[in-house]
Amino acid sequence: MGKQAFDEIMGKPGAETARPELAALGRWIEDTPDAELRRRQEAAETTFRQLGITFAVYGEEEAAERIIPFDIVPRVFLHDEWTRLSEGLVQRVEAINAFLDDIYGERRILKEGVLPEDLVLGNAQFRPEIAGMRPPHGVWAHICGIDLVRTGPDDFFVLEDNARTPSGVSYMLENREAMLRLCPELFRQFRVAAVDSYPDRLLETMKSVAPHGTGSNPTCVLLTPGHYNSAYYEHSFLADSMGIELVEGADLVVDDDIVWMRTIAGRVKVDVIYRRIDDDYLDPLVFRPDSALGVPGLIAAYAAGNVAILNAPGNGIADDKAIYSYMPDIVKFYSGGECKLPNVETWRCREPDSLKYVLEHLDEVVVKLVDGSGGYGMLVGPTASKAEIEAFRAALIAEPQRYIAQPTLALSTVPTMADGGLSPRHVDFRPFVLTGSKGVQVVPGGLTRVALKEGSLVVNSSQGGGTKDSFVLMADQTQRMARGGMTQTMGGMTQSLGEIG
Amino acid sequence: MLSRTASSLYWLGRYFERADFIARLVEATVRLDVLSSQPAGEDAWASALAVTETDTAFGGALEQAEVVRFLTLDASHPGSIVRCLDMARNNAKAVRTALTREAWTAINRAWLLFENRASPRGTTETLNLVDAVKNETRGFEGAIHRMLRNQTTWFIRLGQAVERADNTARLLDVKYHILLPEGEKVGGAIDRDQWTTILQTVSAVTAYRWLYNDGLRPADVIDLLIARSELPRSLAASVEETVDVLNLLAKRTGNHGEADRMARMRAARLAKTRSGEVIASGLHQYLQAFIHENGLLHAAIGRQFKFL
């Protein structure tokens, strides 16, 4: 890559010892033989395969079920790093919710000229069908996954917002399970915030947004496209850990604007639906008429206020890549303060000056489709072939409005098991943020994706990426870190324990 | 419980049981064809197709290699073992959180037996494959008996019981389709050989000796497979099992009706059935009527539990 990347554990690239705050982790890496790390990694992957934590790669044969490679060396967030990050995440997700409420309501932000109107109203992700509808309790983006990259100790950037149906949370939970089993010594050395309450928090979030008048124990379900979907394992895993039914479209029926599920004992009324189906397929009466996955009449029931849908239909307008470049302005508009988590610099190819710049620097930048995901339809300039660059040049000139471009960042690295032993590999990070009627919470952990190929910046699992556990350290870390258990260092036990509680 | 979940569990039970039956049928036919002193030849393979009602769908030559491939490995034939296991596995996947790891791995292992297998090869390999399938179905049987005793297990068992009743009736019917060589008498040596083969394929040779303290008499074999509820694969036992499981479901879910009544009536009728009368009025006709009635019970179960 040429550019030197910040290493999350070692600090400076090529450093001999770990960052002082992570000295214990550095020693662990040094003291544990590679063969032992490999053995544990294989044990974790064997478990994943047996449990069937697999995903399907679109375009490959139907039977191709793969597991996502797991790396045994965790990535670690210090407590104060995490605190700052959380504040930025809460601010951003609050703004996303306010933006959606506004766009499908008054459209103040358009009237005040913060965003170009055609960018929103002419956007394929904008759903005129649901304009004027308001979800119960005014919450739109209940579950957000905000993709972050890091380039230095204090330099976090938002790469993309996922306000529709972000996936990957099952990896956060399963990776932690594997680490607890295979590397228990790390959890004695570090006080790592637990993530296993995620299903409970998610269920609380679901219950909190049940339509008014549903009673104290609303019926919640998880709606999946079915077991051919690449994220089916996650759907069944989450439904199971929340103790709610995993339903398919055909299990639900809408009658007189009420949603029912068909059970062996007859119909049961459904109040809250966590759907893992895209808007397009949600209701053939409103969106794609050829969809067999959805539930006819669901949107009418939603409009009547009889059911809550997580995340709300229409959210695509908030995480669209063309809108993304305006997020700092959007955050500022709704929060009244500066945006705490900056964006990656972005050229909107729809603007002639930006397009000119991008075309002149195609070998340096990353070009993305505004509506692409999963690492498809993407050009990474510095590693692309001449032919790929020329293909993108033609596409950009033909339809510039479909693309954005960003500089190639020196993404941070974390030591990762490679063929020749531990070696730095680039990572990104997806924390999960839940919004219920009582406010926003950030789960202390997330999904770290790692590009396993040396020098590669593409972390998507469909493109050969892997995952790592992500530790978030709790407040009293300093005492535990010091060898010999010194207790007189700053903070003191009382305060730290108070913060944890 | 969701109707779809119940339906998937029920079908999982049916398809896995059916895979086991096709394996047993192939084994029986191989024996009938080559192991007896006077081979039944083409007749044996024609009868295997006739009882599964696939004689018209099968386009190949009436010989072991072709028919075995069709019944075991043919992915385009919905009644082949590989397709049954595929369907069982898909249903299991759709309800995988309801299954224990043991139950799931038994299904998965059976399915993996067929990965990258293009030809059934010779008789030994065919019998080995059949044995391996039977091993996995036994493992699955063990696994579900160790699961929680609730609706999940009961719907799987219900599917198995309904399928098993159908399958045993079809296996008995094999004998009807095989003609005895010219000059052979009913009740003669070859006739008895063939009945022994049928007993072997339902693992009931020893059971027969225990229950009928006598040499092999076709009427007794028929009696055993139809009316003796001590034998788990008999029609009587399979029908009793459907009654029992439906009772358990009714007690737990409060859902009882048409299917319960139908199953109870069949069980009562089977308890009064005498094999002598069955033979006198035509075994084949009796079995055909039984299979038809079994289909009606299947439909009633679907309606009662609102399968999609």
Q: Please, could you describe this protein's structure?
A:
- The complex is a heterodimer of chains A (501) and B (308).
- Chain A is of the alpha+beta class and 501 residues long.
- Chain A folds into two domains: 20-211 and 307-343 and 409-500, no CATH class; 345-408, Dna Ligase, domain 1, CATH 3.30.1490.
- Chain A contains 18 helices and 22 strands.
- Chain A has helices at residues 23-31, 34-51, 79-103, 108-111, 117-121, 169-182, 184-189, 198-208, 232-242, 279-282, 298-303, 316-319, 321-324, 327-335, 352-360, 386-398, 477-481, 492-500; strands at 54-56, 65-67, 70-77, 143-152, 155-162, 220-223, 245-247, 252-255, 258-263, 266-269, 272-275, 308-310, 347-348, 365-369, 378-380, 403-407, 413-418, 421-430, 432-436, 439-442, 447-451, 465-472.
- In chain A, a hairpin with a 2-residue loop joins strand 8 and strand 9.
- In chain A, helix 2 (34-51) crosses helix 6 and helix 3 (79-103) crosses helix 14 (327-335).
- The two termini of chain A are 44 Å apart.
- In chain A, 45% of the residues are buried.
- Mean pLDDT of chain A is 88; it is low at 479-501.
- Chain B has helices at residues 3-35, 42-51, 64-72, 81-94, 101-112, 123-145, 151-177, 189-201, 205-211, 218-227, 235-253, 258-271, 275-281, 283-304.
- In chain B, helix 1 (3-35) runs antiparallel to helix 4 (81-94), helix 2 packs antiparallel against helix 7 (151-177) and helix 7 (151-177) packs antiparallel against helix 11.
- The two termini of chain B are 13 Å apart.
- Chain B is mainly alpha-helical and 308 residues long.
- Chain B has one domain.
- In chain B, 71% of the residues lie in helices and 0% in strands.
- The chains are: A alpha+beta (501), B mainly alpha (308).
- The interface between A and B is medium-sized, with 22 and 21 residues.
